[in-house]
């Protein structure tokens, strides 16, 4: 059956949290407060549904976000405007079935209307060749590395230039057409994120 990518629903947060914390060392853990903060504030928080069940999720924020991830801050110190993929998780039984590619196609269609760059990181410990190949096939390139203070893991910092953005900016400025596939999800006003459980790592 087809993969449906759509905005997350509040009642799915417990399932999203379980998916995140079962994903293994390549994905930093979350707690319910941090996940709730993402639900209330993240510009992009979408899930994939396949065969009627949750197959994964992706969370992303723009460069102006109040986001305390140090990986996010690393990019902000170097680039004035970008979209940051904080995490993408695919359920183990769905890996290799196209869910990740559906997410990256969808998130790029969101980002390229608003940002010149999309960024993310990949941890280099463990078996990472398929992950690096996956990102390379989408046009990401490494622009640096950093070591997380909390756990000593080394991350490759990846970036992709979005070639459609200059045309969209010059043609529409900040006035994108009001059509459903362009609309940004509504987010709620929320207190600052808890500082003790950073998602992007120290």
Write structural notes for this entry.
One of its GO terms (molecular function) is acyltransferase activity. Residues 3-164 form the N-acetyltransferase domain. Its EC number is 2.3.1.-. Keywords: Acyltransferase, Transferase. It holds the Pfam family Acetyltransf_1. Helix 4 links the parallel strand 4 and strand 5 (117-123). The chain has a single domain (3-172), classed as 3-Layer(aba) Sandwich (Aminopeptidase). The longest helix is centred in the middle third of the chain and has 13 residues, at 99-111. The chain is an alpha+beta fold. It is built from six helices and seven strands; from the N terminus they run βααββαβαβαββα. Residues 189-202 have low confidence and may be disordered. Helix content is 28%, strand content 26%. It starts with a strand and ends in a 30-residue tail after the last helix. It has helices spanning 13-21, 32-41, 70-76, 99-111, 129-137, 165-172, and strands spanning 3-7, 44-50, 53-62, 83-90, 117-123, 141-147, 154-161. The chain has a seven-stranded mixed sheet with strand order 1-2-3-4-5-7-6, sandwiched between helices.
Helix content: 25-40%
The share of residues in extended strands comes to: 25-35%
Mean pLDDT: 88
Within CATH, the superfamily carries the name Gcn5-related N-acetyltransferase (GNAT)
DSSP summary, beta strand count: 7
Give the number of domains. 1
Determine and state the CATH class: Alpha Beta
**Helix- and strand-based class?**
alpha+beta
Distance between the termini: 40 Å
Describe the strand arrangement of the main beta sheet, using strand numbers.
1-2-3-4-5-7-6
- Please name the CATH architecture: 3-Layer(aba) Sandwich
Could you say which overall geometry the principal axes of the C-alpha atoms support?
globular
CATH topology: Aminopeptidase
